[in-house]
Structures are given as structure tokens and as C-alpha cells.
Amino acid sequence: APRLAPRMSSVGASPTAEISNKVRSLKSAGHAVVNLGEGELDFPTPPAIADAGIAAIRNGETKYTAVSGTADLKAAIAAKFLRENQLSYEPREIIAGAGAKQLIFNAFLATLSPGDEVIIPAPYWVSYPDMIRLAGGEPVIVETTRSEGWVLQPDALRAAITPKTRWVVLNSPNNPTGAVYSPEAMKRLTDILVAHPDVLVMADDIYEHLRFAGPFATPAALEPALFDRTLTINGVSKGYSMTGWRIGYAGGPAWLISAMEILQSQSTSNPSTISQAAAVAALTGDLGFMAEWISILRDRRDIVMDMVAATPGLEADTPDGAFYVFADCSGLIGSATASGKVLGSDLDVAGYLLEEAHVGTVHGSAFGAPGHLRIAYAVDTDVLREACARITAACGRLR
Ligand code: PLP
Asked: Where does this protein have coiled-coil stretches (predicted)?
């Protein structure tokens, strides 16, 4: 019989896989399924950025580079951190990788020993807990609530810190809630962290540019006392619609960055040269396209919020960022479909919407928040409108 390593027993495939499989099989059966479960923008990568990738191929930039990224890319990343975040990193304090995902994973792998704890506010991005377990650590989940805007509360953070705490992960704008931490809310957390010098801070800023309201706050800039032990993670996937290019980057203390670089050098080496060149164009180029994207996304967010308001059993507050509405669907749990099936959980609600409305969403349990649905509005606006109408109609047929 095949034998897998024990570490494989602590992790599973992405919890969204089941929904994606059903979406695929409904589509192949000829149904017009709208997938509002996907965490990526529908916009094409801006042409000037894509052209820089094409030029890199033509220029023969097709060989190994420094593991942590080309000098050009590191300079563009350093300039971005300084310009947009008032953070000053040296080249040896910067690393580029195959997506923010690889960097987050390597940061955990480089630092966690058995029994080490990592504090994650829930709802959370699905990959954090499994990455932590793969690296031998223990995720410590701290709940946030809708009534507190899905923002981690200082008392909850204080209560979760133990002598074993190695990291605290902060993700704003947040996946799956769209919550944006105000500078004041962030400062209340960094004030606590200052008093715990052994705790590292991971700022997952991947949705930084996708905001409709409020300033952006990142811990290392807000609290200079934390600069030396904060890993600031970002990337081009979300803000520039470049998920497939696989470029993420991080700024942090040199000891940590060099450990992450060693892991990368023995696993994947440098991220794709073509993508690195495109990322330079993204980080140094004109951001003119973004205002239009934000305005399209704001309209779509409002379409989803109108749908939620018009659908008995769904409730949500307007999110300030990312491209998700995280709706409370507990009002639908316990109701029965026309065929008499009782919806017993958020997974059942998501399954019902998929089968009955042909709309894919992700159940909140996947993010550590049962009784909710994550609705990603990263699809064409007219298609979104149609999907929303189908959700409202399908919910209206529940008894
Ligand atoms: N962090 C969060 C919160 C995310 O939602 C994602 C993508 O879904 C990532 C990190 C990883 O992004 P990438 O690896 O594409 O840079």
C-alpha cells in the first residue's frame, strides 16, 4: 500500500475543491453556472504589464536569476514599499517568490518548531492553518465578529498570546470578509504586540490596492518598534489581476529573508523571469487603470449588497475592501427546499444555491466561520446581476 508521510494526515485539499468540482460537472452538463467562489479578478492583466513579459522572452530573459529576484525587481519592490507604505527595506531584506503563497509557507517553514503557536483571526484565508500544520506548528484561531466589523479585538489578541506564540497573522483588507483595519484598530493591536518581543508579525497585505474606503495601515509602518520582527507580504496577484503570473514579495528582517531564500533555493529557485519582468512593469508603471477597476468593483459590491438586502435569510454589512461579501446565511439554515430537503449547514446552503440557482459560493466553515457564505464579485457585472437575481429567487423558494 502507498505510504505517505505522517505530516500529510494533518492537512487536506482546499475545502473549496468540492464546490469547484460540482461547478465543473454542472458546466459540462450544459448549465450556465456562475462561479462566485473564485478568489481572482476577471479583468485581464493590463496590456503594458503583459507586454513587459513578452519583451522579456524576446530579450532572452529566460535563464536563472538570483533566487530572491532580479536586482531590477528588488529595486521596484523597495521603491513600492517606500512610496506607498513609508517602509524602507534594503535589497537583502526583500524576497520575491512564486506568489505570496510560497513566501508565507516558507516563512512558517523557516520559523516553526513542534508546539509553536500561530495566532490567526477567523474568518481566515483557508491556507494559513494547513501551512502552519505542515510546518509543524499549531494554528490558534481567534474569532472576530460581524458586530465588530470582523476586526480582531485587542482583548482577544491579548488573551491568545502565550509563551509558545511565534507569529500573529494580520490580513487587511481581509479574505473572506473584505474588512479593512483602520489605522486606529491596527494600532490597538500593535500596541499589544510591542510588549511581546518574541512574537513575529505577519502582515498579509495582498489586497492593499483593492479598497473602497479608508486609509491603508500596515503594522511595520504604523509601529516602527515592530519593523525588525514584521514580515510584510504583498504581491501582484490581486491588485494587478496577475494571479497566473505567480509573483509575490515580502520585506522583513534579513535573518528571516535569508532563511526563506535558502528554502526557495532548495525547492523552486527564482520565480519565473518572464513574470519578474512583468512585475517590474506593474510596480513601476502607471496605476491609471486601477481607479476604473475600483469603480467597477464598487458597483458590483453594491449589486451584491442590494441582493443580500432583498433576500430574506441573508445579512451582511458593506465591506470596505477586497472583492468579497461575507454574508450571514444562518437565517436559511433549517429551511426546506421544494423537494423537502432541510438545509442543515452553510455547506448545504452553498450546495443548494449551486444546484438550484447554478451559482457557486463558498461556505463560511471553510474560513472558520460557520453560518456564512463568501460571495466573490469578481465576475462580469451583468453576469453578477443575473446570478444575484437567481440567488434571491432560489432563496424565495425555501420554506
Ligand atoms: N493571502 C491571501 C489572504 C489570499 O487571499 C491569497 C490568494 O488567494 C494569497 C495570500 C496568495 O496570493 P498569491 O499566492 O497569488 O500571491
From this structure: none
